[in-house]
Amino acid sequence: MSLFSPTLHSTNRSGWSGNVLIAMAIVSLTACGGGSDGESGPPDGGSGGTGPSVSIGALEGDWLQKGCVKAGAQSYKRTLRVRITGQTIVDYFEGVLTFRGNDCAGASQAAGPTRTGTVTFARSEGSQVLTAHWGELRTVIGTRSGAIWTLQPQDLLCILGDEIPTIQPTLTAVSSSVATIPVDNCFGR
After folding, report:
1. Residue 27 reports pLDDT greater than 80
2. Does a structural domain hold residue 7?
């Protein structure tokens, strides 16, 4: 079952859609590493197991934000969908699940996912605790930015903003940045 097939309720959609836009703005701001009361975990999630795959194939599929964004009597989680379209290219989709209560539990209503852009990865590197994929995000409106998609054991996906060319050229630099991101701002399966 897809993350994007939640139970739908008959609700006043006009008020709901405005709240989704507000939530998406809040989530976009917190995705950069701020705004969460959650604590950062160790880069490997404490697994000590084998490392994540360096293949971009490991990124494909549906992802759900770990943390819950609370806004009044509602709550939200971002959703991502990754579709591989070439050897080093993925289409990137975003959406939001809205919950009636402020704890991201129970039935939800989906908005999206909508295609946000394309990521072209230039290189990938990995260790037992972290795999990083350096690339360029080109949005559907043509803007470009650097992006580093990281995958940790237990399918924990964290996305870092970057510059072109990268300001985090090593796995060690990326690992240090990932360690500052609250797990709530990352995504799981």
Report:
1. no
2. no
Q: How far apart, in whole angstroms, are the C-alpha atoms of residue 155 and residue 93?
A: 18
Q: Residue 110 has which token pair?
A: 């989906």
**Is the separation of the CB atoms in 186 and 151 below 8 Å?**
no
Token readout for 172 is: 């060690």
Residue 52 is part of which domain span? 13-188
Amino acid code (one letter) for 48: G
Evaluate if pTM is beyond 0.85: no
In angstroms, the CA 52 to CA 39 distance is: 22
| Residue appearing with tokens 């992802």 | 63
What's the CA gap between 89 and 84, in Å, rounded?
Answer: 6
Domains held by the chain: number: 1
Q: Which residues contact 61 (CB under 8 A, 6 or more apart)?
A: 81, 82, 189
Span between the terminal Cα atoms of the chain, in Å: 12
Could you read off the pLDDT of 85-137 as tens digits, one per residue? 999 999 999 999 999 999 999 999 999 999 999 999 999 999 999 999 999 99
